[in-house]
Design a protein that fits this description.
The chain is an alpha+beta fold. It contains 12 helices and 15 strands. The protein is elongated. Helix content is about 35%, strand content about 15%.
Amino acid sequence: MGVFRALAGVLTVLLAIGGAAGAQDAGHVPRGADVVTLNFVCAASNDLYLSAKKYRIYAEFVGSWSGTPFGKPRHAKSMRAVVTGWELQPNVKPYMLLSLHDCQFVPIPYARPILTLTRVAGFDIAAFPAPEWVHPMEPSAEVFSLLVEYPPAPHLLAATKLSHFVTGRYAPSAEWRGVWLSVAVGDGSLGLLEGFSSAIDYQGRNLVRYWERADCTGESAFALALAGKVLNDSRSSTTAGNLLNFLYTTSPLAQGPRADPGSPSYGLLGWATASPQVDIYYGDDNARALLGTIGAATVLKSDKYDEFVVRALLANFRTSGKYGFREDSINEENLQKNGWRHYFDGESLVYAPHYQAYLWACYLWAYHKTGYQPFLERAKTAITMTMDT
């Protein structure tokens, strides 16, 4: 089960078939199409690299993996998919039957499939166990691995384009949705991707931002904690807690100089996990991460993150000026050079509520909890000056 619950956003590699077919989501995989090999993913050395980084890959319709060639594409005539693994529970039960219309597949030489492709009797449940798997290069092979976990590492390999399940009208639709819920939904322990960009290209596609940002993580943790509470969904609650653990303990967002009490950046949260973004501190991003953390921790009834919240509140407060305004962003290099008092005693004026107001909300919340007067005074001053401008 671990491979299916490891990521909030599985690093997914959907490899195109025959060039444009996969990218354009054509009607079906064309017969006789060549399999495109993505060298970075398929090379053995890169597989070791990805495994060492604890990335989990889903790849479909590939010509080889880690130096092992697969068979040539075949047509699955009169074959259906049988759920032969237990990894898809509770979304999909073993021995359920799934249909892939006009399926083209590559024989994968790995046994113990999660989904098996074969001829089978039954309507929605297999009437008999699937025949025993034999190596797909054998002339008598009639049982094939459709979805299998790559043995040395927890990568998932699909023999056909499972991602085509909507356009290809795979059936039954509810069970196929369950398959993808199991494959692509993780537990947040490795973070959460920022998601789709608002920009749309000429083909109507949204670009994806593969960032792990502090604010997105905190906000999503709050949303998932609420979902867990309202829907009585323990998995959502667990994922919310794991996202907060990622934010404050396992990712670099709150580590390095940000975890050093002697550093002027102590307590701040990096913008994103990548470099140099991790050493850039946006006040509004820090505030949204804090508000999400406060909300999630309240719903989860957890005090585990209290110290991190206090650190971040004070870190942002002492890098705000005497009038309660904070520069849009401060980077690690300048903060180390100037020290935090340079900002705390400064006269920064940034009349941009979309940058400032989140932090004012944090300061007012902190005053309500602590009674520390400067939180109230500087927030009121900044709000008043902004409204009077």
